[in-house]
Specification:
heterodimer; A: 366 residues; alpha+beta; six-stranded mixed β-sheet; five-stranded antiparallel β-sheet; 9 helices; 25% helix; 34% strand; B: 312 residues; mainly alpha; 14 helices
């Protein structure tokens, strides 16, 4: 096991920069998830750590040693691929023991390690089968088993759950978390699914256009996003962004959303945003769960307003309501018993204690 | 009476209906339609393959003048002739050596071509296929010229290195070498193209997984490439073994079986005794000999493929 460090890592294909100078420190035992939309450079970064792609610039260190020119086989890493990449002509046991056999481990130890990994992953009964005779989930377990038996310094996962159906994906996600709790190997996990990222990671690295947007724990990213991209990418349904401006009315700082709707900011927020120029174009970032049905006893900083719903989506435990504010589509989450109906007027409440204010031009959270 | 007549008429009518409907049923069966559509080919094969094969079986049992039935007499006669055993030996050496080297060279060249960037690959593939595309009789004539005792381009080149004139087709050992060399030159591109197709079908991620598992390039070939290509290798080898065993043109043009029958293989010797020696039944017996040898090889190789058929 080891820590991993990336120092100004760049990957260029001809004249396209896929990864544009990434700095990342991954501690020993840590579970890091690289997340971002397709083409953001997350898989390329992972493949550079694995040694499957050369790096154009910068340094990659595993356990303190620079591994830029070390071939994959000498990096002591294990990787789980999206399509599993099991050897079709080998049995499950042979697949799992392949790396150990290449390194001439004693037979008894190979058997012990394979048996232990198979037990951990609950695939003991499948040990003599060929990959073709396994289901997707079982293949995924074997691919993980192949990584575990090697006891490598680092585990690399490249979108390992993308080929599974939704139900199995949730199950395997928990499985992966359990395995990591047991083996504690430093893990770098790539996914485009923000739910996977949030549920698995110790720290999440959000990437966009070859750069790191933000690094943080799942809660930090959710509650304190640094940019509009992160705020919009993490969380489902996504955060609402409503054009707004600040104005002073009778000594209090107000935020104006439409001609009709303006709210006085709670004192803490007012103090924080007071220095901003009043002319600046701003965006109010508010998550759907902070736009709920209004009731008689609203707390401080929770402001009611009236609107007409366009569409409602009953989800069972909650109902998603969609409406427009001066043409900007907005989504809220209300109680299923709150009486939300398509096309009907409704009184909603906005929790400004959980608001974010963004610069519209730069996308930076203020 | 009238009743009976009416009865008969109805019987004939219903028989007619039954006949038509059974024809309609037959057409409805997919297998019947498939059979009818392949019938022209089946007829063609029967006329061009089955009939000559059976006819040569019949010929092999006749006397030299083709007037008397001699049973297995021709075969008894062959077994006693030293030249026959020489031909068996040379056919085996020729076919096995040539196939092994064609496979080996094809495999190596396929690897090189596979690693050429896609842009230049078509050009190389095309150029490397040339020996296989030229009619063998023509290219063998060119080789004959290269091997010529007086004008040999090879010997001329070798003379600069002080290597004395080599009797390419004059000495038994060299002549055997020469016919195999030409056969390899003509046949290797076929292996190359088959192996190249097989190489392209191996997913890159298997190699990536193997290199992360700690395999060097040789181990990747041994543990990933070869097992993934096993069926193609077996089928190509079998196919080539059959074609090489039955080769005629290269040996006929290059050495005509000489010197002293040392380079004869089944087909050329069958031609010599049958056509040139005017003993058609004996020639037929010689050529029939290839059949059991190839059948045994085919059974072994195909059994191996069937065994692994449901693997990948």
């Amino acid at each position: 096991m080891a820590d991993v460090a990336l120092r100004k890592v760049v990957k260029r294909y001809d004249d396209v920069e896929a990864v544009r100078g990434i700095d990342l420190d991954i501690a020993d035992h840590e579970f890091i998830v690289l997340v971002g939309p397709s083409g953001c450079g997350k898989s390329t970064t992972l493949r550079m750590i694995a040694g499957l792609e050369d790096i154009s610039d910068g340094d990659i260190m595993i356990g303190g040693d620079v591994v830029n020119d070390v071939p994959p086989k000498d990096r002591d890493i294990a990787m789980v691929f999206q399509n599993y990449a099991l050897y079709p002509h080998m049995t499950v046991a042979e697949n799992m023991s392949f790396g150990l056999r290449l390194k001439h481990y004693p037979k008894a130890e190979i058997k012990a390690r394979v048996t232990e990994a198979a037990r951990l992953l609950d695939i003991t009964d499948l040990i003599d089968r060929k990959p073709k005779q396994l289901s997707g989930g079982q293949r995924q377990r074997v691919a993980m088993g192949r990584a575990i038996v090697r006891n490598p310094k680092v585990f690399l996962f490249d979108e390992p759950l993308s080929n599974l159906d939704a139900k199995l994906r949730v199950q395997m996600r928990i499985e992966i978390k359990k395995v990591h709790q047991k083996v504690r190997t430093t893990t770098v996990y790539v996914t485009h699914d923000q739910v996977e990222a949030m549920t698995l990671a110790d720290r999440v690295v959000v990437m966009n256009k070859g750069r790191i947007e933000q690094i943080g724990t799942p809660n930090e990213l959710y509650h304190k996003p640094a940019t509009r991209f992160v705020a919009g990418f993490i969380g489902s349904p996504a955060m609402n962004f409503i054009p707004c401006r600040l104005e002073d009315v009778g000594g209090t700082l107000q935020i104006r959303l439409t001609d009709r709707i303006a709210f006085a900011l709670p004192p803490a927020r007012a103090a924080r945003y007071n220095a901003l120029p009043r002319t600046e174009k701003l965006l109010l970032g508010i998550r759907p769960e902070h736009l709920t049905e209004s009731h008689a006893h609203l707390g401080p900083g929770v402001e009611p307003f009236d609107t007409v719903l366009d569409v409602t989506e009953p989800m069972g435990m909650e109902t998603l309501v969609y409406f427009g504010l001066d043409g900007t589509p907005v989504c809220g989450r209300v109680d299923p018993n709150a009486g939300a109906t398509d096309g009907a007027p409704m009184r909603l409440a906005m929790d400004l204690n959980n608001m974010h204010l963004l610069n519209e031009a730069t996308g930076v959270v203020l | 009476m009238a009743d009976v007549v009416v009865g008969q008429a109805s019987v004939t009518r219903s028989a007619g209906v039954r006949k038509r409907s059974s024809l309609r049923n037959a057409v409805k069966h997919k297998s019947t339609v498939a059979f009818l559509m392949t019938l022209p080919l089946i007829v063609l094969i029967a006329v061009l393959v089955l009939y000559p094969a059976l006819y040569s079986l019949h010929l092999a049992t006749l006397s030299k003048s083709m007037t008397k039935f001699v049973g297995l007499g021709n075969f008894q006669f062959l077994f006693k002739r030293e030249t026959f055993w020489l031909v068996v030996e040379q056919s085996c050496i020729f076919a096995i050596t040539a196939v092994v080297f064609k496979a080996l060279i094809g495999f190596i060249v396929a690897h090189f071509v596979h690693n050429i960037p896609a842009k230049g690959q078509r050009k190389w593939r095309g150029m490397l296929l040339v020996p296989w595309v030229i009619p063998p009789a023509m290219s063998t004539l060119a080789w004959l010229w290269l091997f010529d005792p007086s004008y040999s381009a090879f010997n001329y080149t070798l003379s600069f290195f002080g290597i004395g004139p080599i009797p390419w087709t004059g000495d038994a050992a060299w002549a055997r070498f020469s016919v195999i060399l030409v056969n390899i030159w003509i046949g290797a591109p076929f292996f190359m193209i088959m192996y190249l197709a097989a190489l392209k079908s191996v997913p890159d991620q298997l190699y990536e997984a193997a290199s992360i598992d700690g395999a060097n390039w040789w181990q990747r070939i041994w543990y990933v490439t070869l097992p993934m290509m096993r069926n193609i290798i077996a089928i190509t080898a079998l196919f080539s073994l059959i074609v090489t065993f039955a080769n005629f043109d290269i040996v006929r043009i290059l050495t005509a079986g000489g010197p002293l029958d040392q380079t004869h293989i089944f087909a050329t010797w069958a031609f010599k005794v049958g056509i040139e020696g005017s003993d058609i039944p004996l020639g037929a017996s010689v050529s029939l000999f290839m059949f059991p040898i190839l059948a045994v090889a085919a059974i072994f190789i195909l059994r191996d493929i069937n065994k692994r058929g449901n693997e990948a």
